[in-house]
Amino acid sequence: MPKASGSDGLSNEAPGERREGSISLAALRCFVAVVEGDGLSRAAEHLGLSQPTVSVTLAGLERACGMLLLHRRPRLLLTDAGRDMLVRARLVLGRMQELESSLSAFRGLRRGSLTIGFSTPFFAMPMIAAFLREHPGIALRTRLGNTAGLLEAVAGCEIEVAVMTLVDPVEGMACTKLADQRLVACMPRCAAPRSISLERVAAGPLVLREPGSMTRLMLERALASRQLAPQVRLEVGSREAAREAIAAGIGIGVVLDGELGEDTRLVAVPIEAPAISGGVYAVALPESLELPALAAFIEAGKGTGPGGAR
Length: 310
Known about the structure:
By secondary structure, the protein is an alpha/beta fold. It has helices at 25-37, 40-47, 51-65, 80-107, 121-134, 147-155, 198-203, 214-225, 239-247, 292-301; strands spanning 70-71, 77-78, 112-118, 138-144, 161-166, 174-188, 206-209, 232-236, 253-256, 266-270, 277-284.
């Protein structure tokens, strides 16, 4: 390795002020290779470059720094500034290698995190399970909410992706359809008919979710299209509260098919034509689709739930 020297070799002096260009990683690699290879030829061989290219790169680094880093004659010697630069260049290159290794792990889905919102646990949980089987190194955080709240959270970058029911894709969002869903009436098993008309649903009495819930929005749109006014007896803030209210005999509810679960007290009753339908979507900001973990999560969800759209 070249020995450190003072800066008293007049014929070797670089200009004393910074002239042009900037310090690049390629230039730092070249400088370190020259020092560690004790010459231009070994550095050129190590870097896969020609010796003139290494010489020009080294000179460019010195111009960018505004000072001489290496005396060239009679042999390569580090100046005081060059010795300080060598320590810092090795530190920068080492940190860059760590960064590249970390990014490689993120690209390869060996590490990272993802925040997922959902309004439909029935569809979201199988997606999460499928994703974790394939990518156990990714840490997942979840958030339960209604459709309106989750859309706000996606737009505000509070979550990366949300699994929700929509009637139509949301403008400005990347919406990937995962499955089809229909709205059905939810009634106590002991009093449930085989099917129910939309007029009978409107007559209620109804137990409805809070404004912002997609089940409520779908029902209200269907009723409005038939000029029917819903007779609401109780408004509740969660799917669980709605089930308990219906089981207690307070009124008729509406749920999306598949979401009733294993509650034997209740039964899903088909609403007679026309069907009130929507879809389960994975919703994200368009630019977020470039995130490897998010793209893999959406891919894992295709076909996961009943009626999944492959």
